[in-house]
């Protein structure tokens, strides 16, 4: 299915969930006072006309989502074993709460009523792509907003770099993602330790992991639309690559 604007209805935009006016909904007219102007309905009656009450639709609490690639079961077991080993030796355990994954689109917030639209759009996008191979090779570290991260490197091969580029273009065009949210920069990786990883822990571990071999390849057949349920991430939708709708 093509995504030309002239050939399909406009999709709701995820990142612009603002009311249409300062009044909140339906423009800036003051409906409560519109029947009292000029005292047209109060002649012979000293009591003001009752104001009409309009019920605003209930606000839904926004949810947090992201889009990822997941390894095969066999590769996932190896990554989890590695996380457990690191936690036992160095004490950083938070990463054990998160499924092994490669982030394609960083977390974003949206109203839950958009889930069906987002899911359908991602299914269409995935159907236009093709399965591809991913290779994990070695380890790296980074510092992001004062948070230390130990990760497994993902080879930046054309297939994975292209699907990220096409995805951010799709999210900007169809759902109004900003360039700050749907970013051009992409350094694919699988996290081993983060959040509770301290400077002394990383300093002690890095000499072991800096030159440690870790080589796994697996085939990617799906994109995963993930949602945070308040305590952990869950798979909201698995979108098959290369499958006609």
Explain what the structure shows.
It is a single chain. The protein contains 4 helices and 8 strands. It is α+β, with helices and mostly antiparallel strands and 245 residues long. It has a domain at 63-133 and 157-190 and 219-240: Cyclic Phosphodiesterase, Chain: A (Alpha-Beta Complex), CATH 3.90.1140. A hairpin with a 2-residue loop joins strand 3 (132-144) and strand 4 (147-154). It is globular and about 85 Å long. Residues 1-10 and 16-42 have low confidence and may be disordered.
How would you summarize the topology of this molecule?
Layout: E1 63-69, H1 73-90, E2 102-110, H2 115-127, E3 132-144, E4 147-154, H3 158-175, E5 189-193, H4 199-209, E6 215-220, E7 222-228, E8 233-240
Antiparallel strand pairs: 1-2, 1-7, 3-4, 3-6, 4-5, 7-8
How much helix is in the residues?
10-25%
Question: Which outline best applies?
Answer: globular
Which blocks of ≥5 consecutive residues have pLDDT under 50? 1-10, 16-42
Number of strands: 8
Helical segment count: 4
Region (Disordered): 1-56
Protein name: 2'-5' RNA ligase
Organism: Chitinophaga rupis
Keywords: Ligase
């Amino acid at each position: 299915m093509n995504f030309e604007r002239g050939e399909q209805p406009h999709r709701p935009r995820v990142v612009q969930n603002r009311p249409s006016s300062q009044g909140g909904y339906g423009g800036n007219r003051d409906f409560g006072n519109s029947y009292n102007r000029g005292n047209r309905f109060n002649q012979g009656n000293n009591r003001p006309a009752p104001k009409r009450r309009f019920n605003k639709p209930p606000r839904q609490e926004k949810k947090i989502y992201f889009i990822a690639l997941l390894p095969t079961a066999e590769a996932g077991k190896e990554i989890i074993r590695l996380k457990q080993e690191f936690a036992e030796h160095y004490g950083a355990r938070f990463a054990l709460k998160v499924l092994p994954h490669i982030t394609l689109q960083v977390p974003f917030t949206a109203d839950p009523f958009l889930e069906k639209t987002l899911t359908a759009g991602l299914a269409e996008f995935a159907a236009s792509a093709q399965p591809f191979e991913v290779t994990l090779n070695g380890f790296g570290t980074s510092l992001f907003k004062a948070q230390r991260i130990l990760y497994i490197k993902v080879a930046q091969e054309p297939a994975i770099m292209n699907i990220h580029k096409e995805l951010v273009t799709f999210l900007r065009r169809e759902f109004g993602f900003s360039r700050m949210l749907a970013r051009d920069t992409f350094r694919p990786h699988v996290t081993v330790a983060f959040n509770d990883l301290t400077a002394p822990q990383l300093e002690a571990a890095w000499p072991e992991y800096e030159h440690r071999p870790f080589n796994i390849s697996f085939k990617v057949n799906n994109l995963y639309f993930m949602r945070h349920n308040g305590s952990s991430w869950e798979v909201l939708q698995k979108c098959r690559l290369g499958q006609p709708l």
